[in-house]
Amino acid sequence: MKKRVLSMILAAMLLVAMSASASAATFLSIATGGTSGTYYPLGGDLANLFNTVIPDVNASAQATGGSADNLRLIDGEEAELGTVQNDVSYFAYTGTDSFEGEQITSFSVISSLYAEYVQIVVRADSDIQTIADFKGKSISIGAAGSGVYTNALHVLEAAGLTLDDIDAQYLSFSESADGLKNKQIDAAFVCAGIPNAAVTELASTVGVRLISLSDEEVAALIAAHPTYANLKLPAATYELSEDVNCIAITALLVCSNNLDEELVYQMTKAMYEQEGILTHAKAAEITKDTAFVGVGELPLHPGAARYYTEIGLLDAEGNVVAQ
After folding, report:
1. Cis peptide leading into 195, omega within 30 of 0?
2. Nearest to 89 by CA among 279, 249, 298
3. I need a labelling partner for 74 at 20 to 30 A (CA). Which of 103, 116, 180, 185 fits?
4. How far apart are CA 164 and CA 187, in angstroms?
5. Can you give the pLDDT at residue 323?
6. Confidence band (pLDDT; 50, 70, 90) for 312?
7. How far apart are CA 279 and CA 61, in angstroms?
8. Residue pLDDT, tens place only, 22-40
């Protein structure tokens, strides 16, 4: 009888200990993007890093509609972190452009991640040569309200077009690739790091071309939207015949303002000091030299700022130190 009672007591103590351990865990949802883009696998890579390095953290990547969706999820306390375009983040923070009347200031920046190219993809056998040729064509412009959607509207505007001039399709990257492959659409906007898996697969099957923007279109885009940069997409990316004149933005890792300062400090430190855990190709572009690229007027989370001050990237007043 005594042994039975002792066993019951030990079992109860074990359950209490397990319950306490579970309650001590910090669950983090990282809002990313579609499964065929860069955000989702990189988000999974970051989750693995945080789970490996930081005690009692249980992080996971969540597939979403992309940047705008991610900021709304953070604002609604349905996600703690998100991968987002810097331009969309700026629109949300200032309540402008695609976020006019919907200002969101409940997030802050942890780090810049990598450059994202606005890639305008057609089949290799397409007769489309310029954005002006889009008139009357079926064009995939990403999910409504997404970062890709916003980029597409800006490019169309720079070329003197509106949504009324095209047959707009609201497709994911993989759906766009299928649509081009099956000749159901004529062109697709893809805003992602390079190379993008969906475009690479399409290039290897039916062949692709990317539409180069004119210098005038690029100048108009940057004048109207200073968060854009002008970059050349190397021809070797998709075995193209020449480099492509593109606009690009920056992917950022942001988080809820409510996240604990010490936790964000540990996450930021892990991103820059733990080697061999981040394995995604884009992780190589997360460097101290580019930590603030594209951040602009957006606020840093205090935990991230603390780490950057510790390593000399920020001074005691929070100003960026010239390198």
Report:
1. yes
2. 298
3. 116
4. 16
5. 64
6. very high
7. 15
8. 457 899 999 999 888 899 9
Residue with tokens 């306490």: 20
- Residue 13 to residue 234: CA distance in whole angstroms: 62
How far CA 250 is from CA of 50, 87, 192, 209, in Å, comes to: 22, 8, 9, 23
User: Could you check whether 2-114+252-310 and 117-249 share the same CATH topology?
Assistant: yes
Model pLDDT for residues 73-127, shown as the tens digit of each residue:
999 999 999 999 999 999 999 999 989 999 999 999 999 999 999 999 999 999 9
Q: Which CATH number fits domain 117-249: 3.40.190.10, 1.10.1740.10, 3.30.830.10, 3.40.30.10?
A: 3.40.190.10
Per-domain residue ranges of the chain: 2-114+252-310, 117-249
Res 9 pLDDT > 90: no
Identity of residue 188? A
